[in-house]
Design a protein that fits this description.
Structural Genomics Hypothetical 15.5 Kd Protein In mrcA-pckA Intergenic Region, Chain A; 16% helix; 4-stranded antiparallel β-sheet; alpha+beta; single chain; 289 residues; 10-stranded mixed β-sheet; 5 helices; 2 domains; Pseudouridine synthase
Length: 289
């Protein structure tokens, strides 16, 4: 291996014990499949020796691989098409769920689910979904590869370190940004009740920003940290701007409503996926962090 253009990583205690492919996907970072391809073609050495992807590393070992050239950010994929794996890094995987598909399998049937499709979408590794979307909400559903990463996800959520960003079409003209803090009662599964008081828990707030007018309606971005059942739908209704077509929460017009989980970021992992709503153009320049 040419040592003049290499990246050298010394394994620290925090990543010791990982398989080589998973170590590369986290330390570099890169998709897990890309890490395996590097190892398979002999481009990675550990203490000067070629290793297989499945061998586990010890603290202090020296990993060498080709230095990666800086690349332009990839285009954000569209939400069009069926269920798909969008991104993975050995810890988490992000899947695209189209509207009309359940996130998890329902007792007694009820139609197809993203959960039931995971063996096909992630055939090499078992993955557990760690968030849910309503059947008619599209976008990103996150999965964890191990119970430890699932627990880490919950810890990050409780610290407010998971950023979930949604796009939605709401009824009426929203003139400026807003933060909705109304407390919610989710005891009834069919509909979340909007309470009179605000919640002091910032993890349960929804922030909303208008992006563009769509005739009598508004394209908005909504951000949440943790979330509760129907939180965004209920909070938009409390704001006086329910989702267009969301009759359950007071939205007028014909359904289905348009709500899409377009971006998630946590602990160095990011995934994004834009909706493919007919007649709605999303202004990318306004989707800054």
């Amino acid at each position: 291996m040419d040592k003049t253009n290499q990246k050298v990583i010394v394994v620290d205690a925090g990543l010791a014990g990982l398989r080589l492919d998973r170590f590369l996907s986290q330390a570099c970072p890169m998709p897990l499949r890309a890490a395996r391809r590097l190892v398979e073609r002999g481009a990675v050495t550990v203490d000067g020796q070629a290793w297989g992807s499945t061998r586990k590393l010890r603290a202090g070992q020296e990993v060498r691989l080709p230095a990666m050239e800086e690349q332009a950010p990839p285009e954000i994929p569209s939400g069009g098409g069926g269920p798909a794996l969008l991104a993975e890094d050995g810890r988490y995987a992000a899947f695209r769920k189209p509207a009309g598909l359940h996130t998890v399998s329902l007792a007694g049937g009820g139609g197809e689910s993203l959960e039931a499709m995971l063996p096909r979408l992630s055939p090499e590794w078992a993955v557990k979904l760690v968030n849910r979307l309503d059947r008619d909400t599209s976008g990103i559903v996150l999965g964890a590869y191990t119970p430890q990463y699932e627990e880490r996800f919950r810890e990050l959520e409780n610290q407010g370190l998971v950023l979930k960003r949604y796009l939605a079409v709401v009824q009426g003209a929203l003139e400026g940004p807003a933060a909705v803090r109304r407390d919610l009662d989710t005891a009834k599964r069919s509909k979340t009740r909007i309470l009179a008081q605000d919640t002091p828990d910032a993890l349960r707030w929804t922030t909303v920003k208008p992006l563009a007018r769509l005739g009598a309606d508004t394209l908005v971005e909504a951000r949440i940290a943790k979330g509760a059942r129907h939180q965004i739908r209920a909070h938009l209704s409390a704001l006086g701007h329910p989702l267009r077509g969301d009759a359950l929460y007071g939205g007028g017009g014909e359904g289905p409503f348009l709500l899409h989980h377009w971006s998630v970021a946590l602990d160095g992992f990011e995934a994004s996926c834009l909706p493919d709503w007919e007649g709605v153009e999303v202004p990318l320049e306004l989707l800054r962090p």
